[in-house]
Amino acid sequence: MKLKHIFIISLSTCLPGLSSCDLNITPDSYIPDSSFYKNEAEMNTAVIGCYGGMQAPLNIEWTLTELRADNTRMNSNSSTNDAFLQQQALDLGTMDASNANIRTYWEATYSNINSCNNVLAPENLAVVANEKKRAQFEGEACFIRAYHYFNLVRLFGPTFIITEELSVADAMKKDRSSVEATYQQIIDDLKTSIDDLEDVTYDVADLGRVTQPAAQSLLAKVYLTIGKYEEAKKLLKSVVDVKGDQLTVSYSDVFDISKEMNDEIIFAVRYKSGSLGIGSPFANTFAPTKSGANVVTGDGDGRNYPTTEVLGIYPEGDLRKEVSVSDHYIDPSKKDPVVISNQSAYIKKFVSPVSVRYDAENDWPVIRHADVLLMYAEVLNKIDGPAAGLPYLNEVRRRAGLGAIDISEVPVRSAFREKLEKERRLELAFENQRWFDLVRWGKALETINKQITETESFYGEYAFTVNPMAEWQLLLPIPQSVIDNNPSVITQNPHY
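and the corresponding structure tokens:
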């Protein structure tokens, strides 16, 4: 039995009755039951619940990342459906503090942070007598909490650092912590995870649980994001030493539902079809609208629509395009591929057969071997120059069916970086990486505004003028419901 098979059990049994408010603050009437977890088995169920809790934020994350970047856009500019308009606002940069997608993501993320905090409470960890198992549980929960805070700080800036249960009185006095303090919390959690998960291995039944290479990879990405390149280099070398410098899984097999948790996957959020309530929604969400059952049973929503630019930038012979995206679908009742206006393109990576809408099998990769090699190439170029990073960049290209880049083509760091940035875009397309990369490279404004004004004619077809993005729009607003908890204490991001 795979780990994700028991998510549905754990989600219904692992957590005590907490209220569902924005910061997951314990209500006045709630008296913590410190003996809730009585043994290792109950703690294991609680930890698995933390894995299951990663699904809810991820289900909406594409609206805050891919949709805001240059790989995807809305498929229409004329719908008046409220849910559509809420997502459209994120695509156009016109979101405000009442945006439903932002609030959903925020609440789901803090809900799972609360689940991690419950696992990490000393009185709960203490019920696990086996020292190695206790460390494993701590390491897993620390990783998941760090993952959530890493996403929050990159999307919202200063965050509320909640690492233990708060009373209502204490919570009402709490403002957001600084970006620096948030990153320190993330680093501390991941260092704990790395230490705790040393020499921890899992059998087939537990595939998908956090490993030490996963924690090292995520911490390396954190260090890369904040410009600590030497620290990132050391961690990435450790992962490459374990995983190797070659990609042994074909690109198509990486996303094959019959080959899940293959050697490419360092960490993924797991989904399970079968009407268990833990299936992936993305097959139907991303399939073309009005495509019937020609792409996936139950039709598609046509969301996260690939841009014209991304459809055209794959080099001739790039094996990744066929796996990642399509500009048409086939209607077997007709001779030629069906192309309905400009709405027949769709993301293919996360499409698999379903019996019920929003209930696909596909896992969502969070950290892949190729991502690690590209990060290593990036940091080596930064520290040691193009020659050091080139073998890792070329390994990613080799698997994609592309020729190697010669050192004469990248004689200086800036030339190498240009090649690497395109390679990351194509390799990790539609995996919620592009927005964070653009922000990290300081290219988000330039790229998105070029998309609006030059490369994507779609934005000129609106009945109103789509304005270029401003610097302050790189951060999302804190949900208004959170501000309303205590407007005299809680600060909003500028201009919202």
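(Above: one complete record from the training split.) The CA atoms of residues 267 and 291 lie 32 Å apart.
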